[in-house]
Amino acid sequence: MPVIRKCAQCGQKNRVGAPNLSRTGRCGACQTALPPLAEPLAVDAALFDEIVQGAKVPVLVDFWASWCGPCRTAAPEVVRTASDMAGQALVLKVDTEACPELSARYQVRGIPNFVVLVAGKIAFQQAGLVGHEQMEQWLRSAMPG
Question: In terms of pTM, does the model score above 0.70?
Answer without folding.
Answer: yes
